[in-house]
Write a structure and sequence with these properties.
Length: 591
């Protein structure tokens, strides 16, 4: 069925329900970034499959809002669909309420499904729409009526993440959450975010591709903990293990009724950005609600020392796979047929041979030449470039190990780089090094650190549209919060936070360059001027030195790069011998 036909069916349902507009976000009941196929409603309707974007539909028009990572992809996928692309962040782009006000009459009714919108987003929409003179229906699902071949909800089983790999017991995590409840004078904590639930209860699953999570809700108070999960997703052994950890297990759907039974003495912690509007609406008015960042989100963002050690072990395994792959690539291009798709397959093959490997942490982005300028490019049989001995090749990939999650980007030049290419590459490298080597006082925010990675590019009137760094989970989501290194994020960077460091530069029609390592915040020094923090680099993989314009690097930058490569060689060389060891030695030689 074509997009135009799906829009027609949806508009028929809108007419039956007396709706003049309908909003479809990319979301699920747990406000996940990546979602099960069952909830990919916006993708099914529009044909756009990016991980961020909201669709608005009226009787005779439709528009989709997405950010700069997806501008090129959205233009291609929406072509001929009748859906207008609205580019977020550009001054000429109207917001959804303004766009609707240009289309609808006052008094029109706008609908959306509150089960897949956060409380914050739902109220934002309702407030904006009502100020424009519109009415709202926040509890209406139209798509279930027209999506005949809709995928089923995920059927996979939950499994225990053994403390051998989890490092921190359920009892310790529950104790920390209960301590936080006491500090806030609260009696209970409602959890809807899947990664927070899985981290807290040391369980994992496979309900979302690449993210080892399982569909569930949870509630914790001062003396009990309840996990709401479909009964056919936990076997008897898992239920018994959870019960021994002090966790009661109830059916997934029972959470709504459970919430309605809270009383006037309850003080409930809720994260309004991670709790869907439908369940939030079930909280009785007599209950005092304290809106804050999820308690588990705060705890898991600051990795425990044992978790950091686990991540370092996973990085060694990932580094072995990456060096093996890059050596294969070096030997293969120009000798055998290599394509964007075969590179992704080969990289997965090398990783799957490593200890404690579970899966990729996202679909590998392999962009050759101008495809590298598409920030979230995904190769297909129709777009699959053959790889030759010239130009830039960008590879952004990651893996899930039982003891950590990885995310790395390397941009490699396969021929003889031009001076212009070297300048572009070196500017990106300078930004990555500047952030990695930063020292800063306690309380410094991600928005402040973001400028460090951009300054070299700004000095040449260049920039990139995505954030510089995102938090990374512990055998969990490759993107986690609350910390980010980007202009809009003002959360302080704290000891134990693991983040990416990934500036880039994209020239449409030519090439894309991104260099990414994972870094962890650590203590540096406390003196009369305060407590200072720094970053330690976790990722272990050579950075291509061929495209570097050495004259553009200062002594400190050269020292950092040589020191990084010395660390990579010291930690990875014991795992190699012969030709590949010599290759690694060459790739990590000082410049």
């Amino acid at each position: 069925m074509e997009t135009i036909d799906k829009l027609s069916l949806l508009r028929q349902q809108m007419k039956k329900k007396n709706l003049q507009a309908y909003i479809i976000p990319h979301s699920d009941p747990h406000i996940s970034e990546y979602i099960p196929d069952f909830w990919k409603i916006r993708e099914w309707i529009s044909g756009f499959d990016g991980s961020a974007g909201t669709l608005a539909i009226t009787a005779d028009s439709a528009a989709l809002w997405t950010d700069s990572r997806y501008f090129l992809q959205a233009e291609r996928q929406l072509n001929g669909s009748g859906i207008e692309l609205c580019k977020l962040g550009l001054p000429e782009t109207p917001d959804i309420s303004s766009w609707l006000s240009m289309t609808l009459k006052k008094g029109s009714t706008i609908g959306f499904d509150g089960l897949i919108l956060s409380k914050n987003m739902a109220l934002t929409f309702m407030d904006c729409f009502e100020k424009k003179g519109f009415c709202c229906n926040p509890s209406i699902d139209l798509v279930s009526r027209i999506w005949e071949d809709r995928p089923e909800l995920p059927q996979g089983m939950a499994f225990v993440h053994p403390v051998e790999f989890a490092k921190i017991s359920v009892a310790e995590k529950l104790g920390a959450i209960r301590k936080a409840l006491l500090v806030r004078d609260a009696t209970g904590y409602l959890m809807c975010s899947l990664d927070e639930i899985c981290w807290t209860f040391n369980i994992r699953g496979a309900d979302i591709l690449y993210n080892p999570v399982v569909l569930s809700y949870a509630y914790i108070d001062d003396d009990s903990a309840t996990l709401f999960i479909a009964k056919d997703k936990v076997d008897a052994d898992t239920v018994e293990w959870l019960q021994n950890e002090g966790v009661a297990v109830k059916d997934y759907s029972k959470v709504f009724k459970f919430i309605t039974k809270l009383g006037k003495r309850d003080v409930l912690i809720v994260d309004p950005a991670k709790t869907n509007y439908a369940i939030y609406s079930q909280i009785p008015e007599k209950v005092k609600v304290v809106e804050s960042l999820g308690l588990a989100a705060e705890l898991k963002a600051r990795k425990f020392p044992a978790e950091i050690e686990g991540i370092k072990s996973a990085m060694v395994q990932d580094g072995i796979a990456l060096v093996s792959f890059l050596h294969w690539l070096d030997q293969s291009v120009g000798t055998i047929e290599v394509t964007e798709l075969s590179i992704a397959e080969k990289l997965l093959e090398f990783r799957s041979q490593r200890h404690h490997f579970v899966s990729e942490s996202f679909g590998s982005i392999v962009g050759y030449k101008d495809h590298g300028a598409i920030v979230h490019y995904s190769a297909s049989p129709e777009t699959n470039y053959p790889i030759e001995r010239n130009g830039f090749l960008l590879i952004d990939s990651g893996a899930q190990y039982l003891n950590g999650t990885t995310d790395i980007t390397r941009t490699i030049h396969l021929g003889s780089p031009t001076r212009d290419e070297m300048v572009d590459y070196t500017l990106v490298l300078k930004g990555m090094i500047c952030l990695a080597s930063a020292k800063f006082p306690v309380g410094t925010r991600g928005s402040q650190l973001d400028t460090l990675a951009r300054m070299a590019l700004w000095n040449h009137n260049l920039n990139y549209g995505h954030g510089t760094g995102h938090g990374v989970g512990y055998f969990l989501n490759v993107h986690e919060g609350p910390q980010q290194i980007r202009p809009e994020n003002h959360h302080p960077i704290e000891v134990g936070m693991v983040m990416s460091d990934e500036p880039g530069l994209y020239r449409p029609g030519l090439h894309g360059i991104r260099i990414e390592n994972l870094i962890v915040c650590a203590d540096d020094e406390t003196n009369g001027y305060g407590r200072f923090l720094k970053f330690n680099t976790l990722t272990l993989c050579p950075i291509d030195t061929k495209p570097i314009a050495r004259d553009m690097l200062c002594a400190d930058e050269i020292e950092w790069l040589n020191g990084y490569h010395a660390m990579v060689y010291d930690l990875l060389s014991p795992h190699f011998s012969g030709e590949i060891l010599q290759w690694l030695k060459t790739k990590t030689n000082p410049i």
